[in-house]
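Summary of Year 1 activities. Much of the first year was spent building the evaluation harness for sequence design. The harness presents a backbone, in tokenized form, and records the residue chosen at every position. We chose the following record to illustrate the format because it has been used consistently in internal testing since the harness was completed.
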């Protein structure tokens, strides 16, 4: 998985040029979609994307590929499954490494301690503190399950 700083738009554009030169259709197609979404997000925000927004953009694209794969499997379209899986694998190289279960639990404990939450009804308070810390390295659903479990067991 990706562990360095998020690539800049100009780095992605350089990768696109390389993919075009090499005739790499999958990378070319994927990078064009990402760059299109990147530019759209910049226009909507009125400023350049920061790293958190870039991570969010890549996560959104990865989620779209997972949905494409599921839809194509239901429709029995193996060629679409294969191309979407290749795109997903490529997109995941740009995402930060996911937290392990123990790392996530440790971050949840710290958030619970800092917020002073003691019961499940305070889950929103903990999640509000936790999600910026995870910065795209944990799935929100997984994080909420851990928070719920820990607040219920206290």
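For this record, the design step produced the sequence shown next.
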């Amino acid at each position: 998985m990706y562990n360095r700083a998020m690539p800049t738009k100009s780095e992605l554009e350089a990768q696109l040029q390389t993919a075009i030169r090499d005739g790499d259709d999958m990378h070319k197609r994927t990078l064009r979609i990402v760059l299109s979404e990147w530019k759209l997000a910049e226009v909507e925000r009125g400023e350049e994307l920061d790293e958190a927004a870039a991570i969010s953009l890549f996560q959104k694209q990865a989620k779209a590929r997972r949905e494409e794969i599921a839809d194509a499997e239901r429709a029995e379209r193996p060629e679409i499954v294969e191309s979407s899986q290749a795109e997903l694998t490529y997109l995941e190289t740009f995402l930060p490494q996911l937290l392990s279960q123990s790392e996530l639990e440790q971050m949840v404990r710290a958030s619970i301690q800092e917020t002073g939450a003691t019961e499940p009804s305070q889950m929103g308070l903990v999640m509000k503190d936790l999600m910026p810390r995870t910065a795209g390295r944990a799935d929100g659903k997984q994080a909420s399950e851990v928070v719920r479990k820990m607040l219920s067991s206290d």
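The chain is about 75% helix and 0% strand. Quantitative recovery figures across the full test set are reported in Table 2.
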